[in-house]
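User: Here's a chain of 281 residues. Predict its fold as C-alpha cells.
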Amino acid sequence: MNEMSHDPGDRSRADAIQALAGVRGVLFDLDGVLYRWEQAIPGACEFVKFLADAGIPYAALSNNSQTGPENLRDRLARLGMHFPLERVITSATAAASYVAKLWPGSRVHVVGSSYMHQAMANVNVQCVGQDAEEADVVALGMSMDLTMVQLAEAVRMLRDGAELVATNPDAMLPVPGGFQPECGAVAALLEMAGGRTARFVGKPNPEFFTQGLAAIGRSAGETLMIGDTLEVDILGATQSGLCSAFVATGNPIEGEPAIEPTVFVDDLFELRRLLQAGRTG
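Assistant: Prediction complete.
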C-alpha cells in the first residue's frame, strides 16, 4: 500500500489550535517522537524546553521492556532533554506492578530481558526459573537473546495453566538497517502454541496511561499524548480520554488510517507552534 502523508490541512489550523487549547500536561512516546536510536529528532529538545519553560508537566510512556527507566532517562539527558526519573515509565515496570496486583505472591516465570527480570524481582511475587515444574504466570517481555528452548519451556507452563502477561503488543521495532521483532510477535507465538490469550500491559492499555497521568498530576481531559503509532499511542490515548497528536517523524501510516488523532503534524516544531498559539490566543 502507498504511504499517506497528513498535515494540519486535514483539520484547519484554527480547529487544531482550539482542540489543543486546554492542554495542561503531555505524555510522550519516545522512539520516533523524541529520538531515533541515538539521535534526537529535530525539534524534540526545543519542544521539551518549551514545556519546561511554560510549566507544563510531562512524562514518557515507553513500551520498551529491554531497558530500565534509568537508562532511558540518561539517553534523553545525553540528547539534551531532561526527564525526572519518576516520569519515565516502561512497560516492564507496569507489567511487574500488574502481576503483583492481580496475583500477589504468585510464582512467575519471566521470559525477557535482564531488566524485565529485575522489575519482576522488585515486586511481591516469587520468580521461578525454566526448570520449575509449574508457574502461575508467564511474564513476557522482549529480548533479542530469547531462545527456542526458553520459549518451549514457557509453552509448557502455559499448557499447564499459567496466565500469559505481556509487556506490549508491538509486532516490530525499526532499527538501523530494517526491523527486529518486538514483544507482540513473540506473544503471538506463545498464544498459538500455549493456548492462552496474552494480557498486554503497555500501550494501548488504559491502565498504562493512568500511570502516566498520575506521574504528572493531570487528568485525562487536560493531557496530550504525542506518538507515532496509531494502533498503540493514539488508540490508547483515545480510549483513555486524552487528546492526541500523531507526529510523522516515526512510523509511517500505510493506507487510510482507521484511527484518527486529535491532530496530525509533520514534526514537533509544528506542534509547538500550535500549542503556543493556543496559549497566547
